[in-house]
Amino acid sequence: MKLFRRLLLVLSVATAVVGILRFGGSGKQRVTTKQGGWRGYEPTK
Amino acid sequence: MIGVMGAGLVGAAVVDMLTAHGQAQVVVSDANMAVARHLAVRASTKTSQVHASNVGDMFATNLVVLACPAPHAKAARKLLEAGVSVVSCSDDLDDTLAMLDLDAVARQARQTLVVGATMSPGLSGLLVRVMSARFSTVDEAHIAIHGTAGPACAQQHHRALTGQSLGWHDGDWLRRRAGSGRELCWFPDPVGPRDCYRAELADPAVIHQALPELLRVTVRMSANRRDRLTARLPMLTPPHAEGGVGALRVEVRGWRNDARHVEVVGVADRVARVAGKVAATTARQVIAGGFASGVRVLGDDESPNATLIDELVASSVHLHEFVGSVLG
């Protein structure tokens, strides 16, 4: 039983770590003018 | 009178663009006549009459847009021999190469065959030509695409991840295994970054025809693990009715003011919508006499490239340029 509880604890901690690594800080940040990015393009005449 | 073969997503976009510009008569045919009839009824306006008809009636038109699934080469030859100009939307490599060989047939018939008038190929070559105006000399063009138009296009892209990818490399054709050569390509929003791989697509053949001075031309297509794993199998699930928002990314490298220079221009939009606009704009220019007789591709120095790109921009094809970060 003790082993089973430890296993559950390890699994839950591992899941939490994986979740943080995968989704932590993945919020989309807007690219500012200074950083560059995609702009409208006017073909050269 | 303009004929459109294929009443799928691209064919419908072609018809919509033609009627929006006041084309008086358009004839549509499709393997499924019910679909052609439905499109004809939907697209007809007070000023533009759209008729559903069988394939035989295409020979009575001035120009036919081939927006049906590949192959197009056989139909294009028959139409040219009957004195009808052709605009092809095929993106199949073998089909494109076969059509590029029809120059003598087209010249003899004094008609025009425009090969690859879609988003890719087509708009890709046009953008390379337009972007080259900002360079002293251009020597490399690297194309990446994401997304598909209708189900036929999705199946073509599924097949493109197998076989051999064609690339122009220092004066010679280089064949590499399709599905190899992963590269992370950034497309305009909302598509963003995608892993892209070599694919059996027609862009290098068409762009080399348009700009033979280029030393390197490559094409890559976005794919995920499942796409690559199942590429050699039949499609496991039927393709979507429409692929949704896709994107095209054109990277041109060359020299400007004695320094190496790179520019990246892209489009993110529904693939069928852009392909239809490119094909319809090209068709209108062929009718207006903008193209000489023979086999033509978008971006070659004898095509009305400036007019084409202006009309496309005016018809809400939004071009984006990638601007790097400002240092300091």
| Unreliable runs of chain B | none
**By helix and strand content of chain A, what is the structural category?**
mainly alpha
The number of helical elements of chain A comes to 1
With helices defined by DSSP (H or I, 4 residues minimum), what is the helix count of chain B?
A: 11
The total number of structural domains of chain B is 2
Helix content of chain B: 25-40%
Q: Count the E strands of chain B.
A: 16
CATH class of the largest domain in chain B: Alpha Beta
Helix content of chain A: 40-55%
**Average pLDDT, all residues of chain B:** 91
Largest sheet of chain A: none
The overall strand count of chain A is: 1
Question: In one word, what is the shape of chain A?
Answer: rod-shaped
Could you give the order of the helices and strands of chain B? Answer: EHEHEEHEHHEHEHEEEEHEHEEHEHE
Distance between the termini of chain B: 58 Å
Largest interface, counted by CB within 8 Å of the partner chain's CB: A-B, 13 and 20 residues
Structural class of chain B: alpha/beta
